[in-house]
Design brief:
This protein is α+β, with helices and mostly antiparallel strands and about 400 residues long. The protein folds into two domains: about 180 residues, no CATH class; about 180 residues, no CATH class. Helix content is about 60%, strand content about 15%. It contains 16 helices and eleven strands. Strands 1, 2, 3, 4, 5, 6, 7, 8, 9, 10 and 11 form an eleven-stranded mixed beta sheet that branches. Helix 2 runs antiparallel to helix 15, helix 13 runs antiparallel to helix 16 and helix 14 runs antiparallel to helix 15. The longest helix has about 40 residues. About 40% of the residues are buried.
């Protein structure tokens, strides 16, 4: 026990006596471990954030839209599509929409040229849409029954478009929609499951029909909230109910699947960054082997004196291995701390949930120790094989 304690003291003294060299030795395992932990932690944090959003928004929102077989170039759904959808027992609520085309929206006349180049989506909606999407308004109100029945030129805009137009949440503004002045009565909050709505304009069905359509207005898409435990079954049933059994006329999409797929798509990036971290720690291990080999030559006089005093080859080898272990432990600990800091900063900037698997810290330290010991084997063996007389030639 006394011998081991003396070896630890000698190893620590050797490392502290050459602080710059020791710092260089620490950089390899520290950077490698930090890169691995940051890669795994940041991708897990992003995945956790997406899962939290999916849990918050629900996995039971289904979009059903008309395919080309229903109406050629501009397919539409049946006029009674809502009633058909509600015949499915697992459907809880439905909201139809009409995506209008070739309509220019401008905040003022001078900006028309810009928005002719980059058109803004215009969507005809019913009062039920925010409840079905489960999205609140930032300010103002949604399209209501009075707007629909009176044919009022009322409009609600997405929160992204409100920022672009400079519309305040409670401000009453008029915007030009297809040559008609519409009053902005509300601003819809961000729609995570339908990002395109953030920059869209929403108007009543009745006004869309009278201002922009020659024929009766027919929805081309519906959103339905269904039983969370029977989502896939509901999607299949909606297709049949809306098309009355016709082939390939209605396509359905579970909106949360895109977020769930995004939560899995980060695995490839994670593997790439982890591989880079492993490469960094291996290169760091080669650096440890190189620096410690040079250290053996520089400390040959010390080794010779200790051999002359009776220290065996085994004791000399253990001393250098202990130095490598200390480098691995300290480098691993600082690498873990640096990796955790990187996760915290990255998650804070991106607005993600901080997630770090509990096994990452011990695994990172163990990896650093393993690489350091493997790198220290050759220098330790070389130091142990030095004979007292040979150290006079080297020193």
């Amino acid at each position: 026990m006394n011998v081991f304690r003396d070896l630890v003291r000698v190893a620590m003294t050797g490392l502290l006596a050459r602080k710059i060299r020791t710092l260089l030795l620490l950089l390899g395992p520290m950077i490698g471990v930090a890169a691995i932990i940051a890669a795994v932690g940041l991708t897990d944090s992003a995945k956790g954030d997406l899962k939290a959003k999916v849990a918050e928004l629900g996995t039971n929102l289904i979009e059903a839209s008309a395919s080309s077989s229903f109406g050629g170039q501009n397919p539409t759904l049946p006029e009674d599509v809502v009633e058909r959808a509600l015949t499915v027992t697992t459907v809880e609520s439905v909201a139809p929409i009409v995506e209008l085309s070739n309509i220019i929206v401008t905040p003022y006349e001078e900006a028309r040229e810009k928005y002719e180049t980059v058109p803004i989506p215009v969507v005809a909606v019913t009062p039920e849409l925010p409840d079905v999407l489960e999205v609140p308004l930032v300010g103002g109100r949604w399209i209501n029954d009075f707007d629909e029945q009176a044919g009022a030129r009322s409009a609600v805009i997405g929160v992204g478009l409100a920022r672009e137009f400079g519309v305040l949440p409670e401000e009453l503004r008029t915007i030009d929609i297809g040559g008609h002045d519409y009053t902005v009565v509300g601003v819809l909050d961000s729609v995570q499951l339908e990002p395109g709505f953030d920059t869209a304009v929403f108007i009543p069905f009745s006004r869309a029909e009278s201002d922009f359509l020659d024929d009766d207005i027919l929805p081309n898409k519906i959103y339905a909230r269904v039983d969370p435990n029977r989502v896939d079954e509901s999607a299949d049933a909606l297709t049949t109910a809306i098309s009355l059994g016709g082939p390939d006329e209605v396509k359905t999409d579970v909106k949360s699947e895109a977020l769930e797929l995004a939560a899995q798509s980060d695995r490839q990036l994670q593997l790439i960054v982890v591989s880079m971290g492993l490469l960094a720690i291996i290169v760091g291990g080669l650096g440890i082997a190189n620096v410690m080999s040079i250290s053996v030559i520089q400390r040959s006089a010390e080794i010779g004196i200790r051999r002359a005093l009776g220290h065996t080859r085994r004791i000399i080898a253990v001393q250098f291995l202990l130095e490598a272990i200390v480098v691995g432990v300290i480098g691993g600990v600082f690498g873990v701390l640096l990796g955790m800091l990187s996760i915290f900063i990255g998650a804070s900037i991106a607005g993600w949930v901080f997630v770090m698997a509990p096994w990452l810290a011990p695994a990172g330290i163990l990896l650093a120790i393993t690489i350091s010991v493997m790198a220290g084997l050759y220098p330790a063996r070389r130091a142990a094989r030095l004979e007292p007389l040979e150290t006079l030639r080297l020193g």
